[in-house]
Design a protein that fits this description.
3 domains; about 20% strand; 15 helices; elongated; alpha+beta; eight-stranded mixed β-sheet; three-stranded antiparallel β-sheet
Length: about 500
């Protein structure tokens, strides 16, 4: 029997707030253990939580970005369980009345479009971090109480690659919207994977296996690449799968069973008595909606449609938002936006990277830490974006050759001068005077009798050598297109 995978993901994302969910402790990464804590974080008796309004705003904003419904009433609940990183022995979360429900994420997959439905995106608090040493363990509660958004997908994913692309699309949306920095190295995004297999074409669901606390998208893909065939092999061998929780051993490349799966009633959910239900007003919702941004996929599609850019260029501007803004400013009024995009991507970006690498090396030699360094960015350029459009225009109207344009760009980058002024100062204007070019072509043909004869005998590539001679005589200022036309006419006469 042939089987297929059914996958759902629970993605936990730390929200981009200055303080924690229920108290004023700093929401920062990298502080010494247990320094960003207070009686609320540590679950001391008698303390009362106060909700972080910015976390509520970011949660609803996420719902809007994910096409979710925003209920008129949401409440918080206690999820009860005993574990060392939960000082209160319960986690404040949302259970039956979350802040958002429904929705979907559209993303590109295998040359087409895919959609994964969103069950809900609900707000809760993060827990502490267990640290295990040789002979003992410790708990760092700096992370406890950090606002955490859990985004639960429907089981619409069918492969490891599809899960990977969905997670990247979701991350792009959250970063674009200012919801989270999604820095996985800092533990800002973690993922639980729910996967089962069923007979291909079936509608039921098999025994759900949960793989807990995945901390990288590539790890999710590797774990599923192992787990799906493992489940199929068990069933094809006549075995039975039971609902359980497993861990991913990345070094060994295998999943290992941790425990049989808990059910919702095991957590004894009940309404959080210390927090009132949240009922957003129309005015509050309108303020949140004003923070909506263009989604990454929509941005890419708009760049392709509006500026007629190929998918690769649009992808660059989707991934690098400031560079995309710069391009759009430079392309305003341009006759050939694609040519502007080429200069932004191939010239400007490369020049900035070279400059930044040099500046970083110089500052490293002085003993500066990366956090204390400064280097040239788009906002530090000495010329405005319109100057790049003007440079492209000079090339497009054949005032400037491509090679001369490179010289002009370097001068623009270093001095900020207008391209037209640089062309005039350095005498770089392209020669398009037919009479002058005809004389140069005659001289080049006379100086290259062999290539001229080869061209006349049908070896068309020989024309390039004669054209090169003309460019040398003109010190690179001759219009190459016009030179080619004149040479072809003269050699065929």
């Amino acid at each position: 029997m042939e089987y297929e995978a059914v996958i759902g993901l629970e993605t936990h994302v730390q929200l981009k707030t200055q303080s924690k969910m229920w108290c004023g402790c700093a929401n920062t990464f990298g502080s010494p253990p247990n320094t960003n804590v207070c009686p609320v974080c540590l679950g001391m008796p008698g303390v009362l939580p106060v909700a972080n309004e910015e976390a509520l705003r970011l949660t609803v904003l996420t719902g809007l970005l994910l096409n979710c419904e925003i209920p008129a009433r949401a409440k918080f609940d206690r999820k009860n369980y005993f574990y060392p990183d939960v000082a209160k022995n319960y986690q404040i979360t949302q259970y039956d009345q979350p802040s958002t429900r429904g929705g979907h994420v559209d993303f590109e997959f295998q040359g087409g479009m895919a959609r994964v439905r969103i069950t809900r995106a609900h707000l809760e608090e993060d827990v502490g971090k267990n640290n295990h040493f040789d002979r003992n363990s410790g708990v760092d509660f700096n992370r406890a109480g950090v606002p955490l958004l859990e985004i639960v997908s429907e089981p619409d994913l069918t492969s490891a690659d599809m899960a990977y692309e969905y997670l990247n699309a979701l991350k792009d949306i959250l970063v674009y919207g200012g919801i989270s920095d999604c820095d996985m190295e800092k533990g800002m995004v973690r993922c639980d994977v729910n996967v089962s297999v069923r007979p291909k074409g079936g509608t039921g669901l098999g025994a759900k296996i949960e793989i807990k606390n995945m901390n990288s998208f590539s790890g999710v893909r590797r774990a599923l690449t192992y787990e799906i065939p493992r489940q199929i092999e068990v069933l094809q061998g006549g075995g039975t799968l039971i609902q359980s929780t497993r861990r991913w051993d990345d070094a060994g490349g295998i999943t290992e069973e941790m425990r049989t799966k808990e059910h919702a009633h095991d957590y004894r959910y009940f309404p959080e008595p210390d927090l009132m239900p949240f009922e957003p007003t129309p005015e509050w919702l309108a303020a949140v909606k004003s923070r909506m941004v263009e989604l990454p996929l929509a941005r890419k599609q708009r760049f392709m449609k509006t500026y007629e850019l190929p998918a690769g260029d649009a992808e660059v501007f989707k991934n690098d938002v400031p560079l995309g803004h710069y391009f759009e400013t430079a392309a305003q009024g341009a006759a050939n936006p694609k040519a502007v995009a080429n200069w932004v991507i191939n010239n400007l970006r490369a020049r900035l990277a070279e400059t930044q690498a040099r500046e970083i090396a110089e500052q490293e030699s002085l003993g500066l830490e990366r956090s204390d360094m400064t280097f040239t960015g788009l906002s530090d350029l000495k010329f405005p974006p319109q100057a790049l459009r003007d440079l492209v225009g000079l090339v497009e109207n054949q005032t400037l050759s491509s090679s001369a344009a490179q010289q002009v760009f370097v001068e623009m980058f270093e001095t900020g001068k207008a391209p037209a002024d640089i062309v005039q100062e350095k005498g770089l204007a392209q020669v398009s005077d037919t009479g002058a070019l005809e004389a140069l072509c005659d001289e080049a043909i006379a100086a290259n009798p062999g290539p001229a004869a080869d061209y006349r005998s049908g070896k068309l590539a020989a024309l390039n050598r004669i054209k090169g001679h003309v460019m040398k005589l003109s010190q690179g200022k001759a219009n190459p297109g016009l030179v080619g036309e004149i040479l072809e006419r003269k050699l065929r006469a």
